[in-house]
TrEMBL record:
Keyword Cell membrane: no
Protein name per UniProt: Thiamine pyrophosphate-binding protein
Domain Thiamine pyrophosphate enzyme central: 194-330
Domain Thiamine pyrophosphate enzyme N-terminal TPP-binding: 7-111
Origin species: Sphingomonas naphthae
Length: 577
């Protein structure tokens, strides 16, 4: 039976398990949006195309599948540019679709063409693949190539457009092929290399697992848990891999921001790296805490992109393949010969939890909102993270607020969504919306979400409060408010000293996010005392609405006392890594 191009595109995406669509439709997309909703998709129109892209990126992370965002021709897709660039740096397989004027418009020698710009050249350097569906019968090959490129090697975004006259043309084609018929799926590693890796693991005395962003986005937590238990070793999180795997939370530590992680790395004689680029935030696996034992430490690196092997540091055994294929290979090979516990494992587990407990106690010596000082940021983070709902989705955003979260967070969530590699603040609210909606579309269950963020970041896409409210999300946004760009105020102070002018980093103290929330149909809370944070969060969830908790925090502490800030700055130590 003939189907129009827009419906064929949906069929091709459905074959990949995609069932969410984010964007603001125009004449190029109204047919697709209507058809998608009738087919049971979750279709979401936000208030800005960049937000649509961020929503789609979060959807990809939470489902382990590619995702789809649309931008209307001209200004719509131009507004998507920040999200496209972010998806590239964050290695997120987002497929961006755009309409375009009919090709006759592009080829004519005219000035003053409305809503028109040549779009493909704008994005070619920010995507892995850029193409146009010029003829209806190209639909299958171009969409499949886009998916193939988005997921192959290092994942990333692709851009596909079509002239307006193509979208309603009809095709008479068989049912779409399953993914395994047109692209490589769950590629395993060379069996001889797997044997070499297993031999190194069995010979190690102090192995560690280095777990990156890719472990979460491929949804491989359960298999990695099996591997960690067979290796009987500590699990070290990269800054992008901060989702805790269920069942091994007690042996999992954040690199640098947990003292136990530093000791485990320093003493290790083997590192098995999964789903990480071994980038600056882990000092390329060769500098700072990796220096000790560098001469004897062996490296096993699971990486889908063969051109990435050995770029940031020498590798002893490269396992080229998809985590979804390689981790089960390692588990199967070690199944009958699990390792004895690493010598320091019990101490790391004990000391890691003791450190978190001590940090919570230490935070309670800081200002609590009584007297002359607002709530200290460490207390804000401790209280908010202790109120995090069990099995919820945590979304992080902000500058100084995120630095405080790395050290003081008391929760160990299984799903953490935040923008680590690109450092693009303001993504929090659209990330929360996209992740929660895609999770519900994939599982049929609506899990609670908590966004812990800062005021400056929250205002980037504050209009998406309406989107979250319209979608009835069980989301609470806990906003630390110091009426300034905290990190940048700190830069002024460290550069010029106390008392200098701080141009461009302060803003109005009259803003009330609880009142703004109410204007969007959400539940608002205003908190100035630390003991009121948890009750405010509880009331926000109980309201049945999207909640916004405005928490007044100490601007001086937020800009001057960020925990382990010198460690954070080592990520930028050009020429020393």
């Amino acid at each position: 039976m003939p189907v129009p191009v827009y419906e064929r595109i949906l069929q091709l995406f459905e074959a990949e398990g995609i069932n969410t669509l984010f964007g603001i439709p125009d004449p190029n997309f109204v047919h697709m949006f209507l058809a998608a909703e009738r087919r049971g998709w979750t279709v979401v129109a936000p208030h800005h195309e960049a937000a649509a892209g961020f929503m789609a990126e979060a959807a990809s992370r939470i489902t382990g599948k590619p995702s789809v965002a649309i931008g209307t021709l001209g200004p719509g897709i131009a507004n998507s540019a920040p999200a496209i660039q972010c998806a590239l740096v964050e290695n997120s397989p987002v497929i961006y679709l755009s309409g375009q004027r009919a090709r006759v418009t592009e080829q004519r020698v005219r000035r003053g063409r409305i809503q028109f710009v040549k779009q493909m050249p704008l994005f070619e350097n920010s995507v892995k693949y850029s193409a146009s569906i010029e003829y209806a019968d190209q639909t299958d090959e171009i969409i499949r190539e886009g998916i193939r490129k988005a997921l192959g090697g290092t994942p990333g975004p692709v851009y596909i457009e079509y002239p307006s006259h193509i979208i309603t043309e009809e095709l008479d084609l068989p049912e779409p092929l399953p993914p395994s018929r047109y692209r490589l799926v769950n590629q395993g590693a060379d069996i001889d290399r797997v044997a070499e890796a297993v031999a190194l693991i069995r010979a190690a005395k102090n192995p560690i697992l280095l777990v990156g962003h890719g472990v979460h986005t491929t949804r491989m937590g359960e298999a990695v848990k099996e591997l960690a238990l067979l290796m009987n070793c500590p699990v070290i999180q990269t800054s992008g891999g901060t989702s805790y795997i269920k069942g091994i939370e007690d042996r999992t530590f954040q690199y640098v921001f947990s003292n136990a992680s530093i000791e485990a790395v320093t003493e290790s004689d083997l590192c098995l790296a999964l789903g990480t680029e071994l980038g600056e935030p882990v000092h390329y696996g060769r500098w700072r805490y990796w220096v000790k034992n560098e001469a004897i430490r062996k490296w096993i690196y699971v990486e889908q992109d063969p051109t990435a092997i050995g770029v940031n540091r020498p590798i002893d055994v490269p396992l080229v393949g998809d985590l979804r294929g390689v981790v089960p290979q390692l588990v199967a090979a070690l199944k009958d010969t699990p390792l004895e516990p690493a010598p320091g494992l019990a101490a790391f587990m004990r000391d890691g939890q003791a450190e978190l407990d001590d940090l919570a106690v230490e935070s309670r010596t800081k200002s609590d909102g009584h007297g002359n000082l607002p709530i200290h940021p460490s207390r804000f983070v401790v209280e908010a993270s202790e109120a995090f709902p069990k099995d919820g989705i945590l979304i992080r955003d902000g500058g100084a607020t995120v630095v405080y979260q790395w050290t003081y967070s008391q929760s160990k969530p299984h799903d953490v969504i935040w923008n680590q590699n690109f450092g693009h603040i303001g993504t929090g609210l659209p990330y929360a919306t996209g992740a929660m909606l895609a999770d519900k579309a994939a599982t049929g269950k609506s899990r609670p979400g908590m966004l812990i963020t800062s005021d400056s970041s929250f205002m980037f896409h504050i209009a998406e409060l309406e989107t979250a409210a319209r979608c009835n999300l069980p989301l609470v946004c806990v906003v630390g408010v110091d009426n300034q760009w905290g990190l940048e105020v700190g830069v002024y102070k460290r550069t010029f000293g106390q008392g200098t002018e701080e141009t461009g980093v302060h803003w109005s103290k009259d803003v009330r996010f609880d009142k703004v929330a109410e204007g969007f149909g959400c539940h608002g809370e205003y908190v100035t005392k630390v003991e009121d944070i948890k009750p405010a969060i509880e009331r926000a969830y109980a309201s049945g609405k999207v909640g916004v908790v405005h928490v007044v925090i100490d601007p001086k502490a937020n800009s001057e006392e960020m925990p382990k800030y010198p460690e954070f700055r080592t990520w930028y130590a050009e020429g020393t890594q």
